[in-house]
Specification:
Number of strands: 10
Structural class: alpha+beta
Radius of gyration: 27 Å
Helix content: 25-40%
Shape: elongated
Amino acid sequence: MNKAFLLFLLFTGVFFTSCVPTKDLIYLQKNENTENSSLVNPVVSKPYRVQTNDILSIKIKALDAKLVAMFNASDAGEGKTVSDQTLYFDGYSVDDHGNIRVPVLGEVNVIGFTLEEIRIKIEKQLLDEYFNKEANIFVTVKLAGLRYTINGEITNPGTRTLFQEKVNVLEAIANSGDITMVGNRRDVTIIRQYPHGTEIHSLDLTDINVMNSPYYYIQPNDYIYVKPLKQKSWGTGMTGIQSISSVIALISVVATTIVLINR
């Protein structure tokens, strides 16, 4: 009787501790502190400031295209696909001194500037040194893709480049095939580069309030790491069926051992 009771306790304990709870798999859950509203407060995000190793895409246009042809490193043309390789070779890389080299204009310091500030700076230099207002200069400055690396318990780890102005961490994860069932959604690590050094931040993606975090939107060169749950190290199964199979196998071993000892 005691042996059967111990086996029952063993079965129950392993079953309930080995499965991955549903609450650990669902994103953006409301908790007791969340107001009864379908709306989330808007994230007040600061504009991104350019750092070293960023790659910028700069296009200069005017009424007379020939006037600005020499300022543009290349032009993919309308309807043509721009690849990562094209942006790497034809974009403007920010060097260790925070400068980019623009044809004719030479070196332009951009470190710590927003994209809008860089646009205004280049436009002003063009008007002061080369053109008049009647030329209708139009300058566009963008990041040459938002590049990030994701690793850990993710379906398709690796480095990705998304051609969007803003990308949140959930979009970054979705573009990598989502977090595996044994990935810890409650403690996702964001390693981010700043002018003063590297900082590590943690996000709980199961909490809807994560959308208010200043780290909810990723930045260029972010490293995202998804930690494993303890269920992975136990190796007892992620679902109920897997856990039952593991428990049955464990009970068979224990029962066989008891029979052999009693003989």
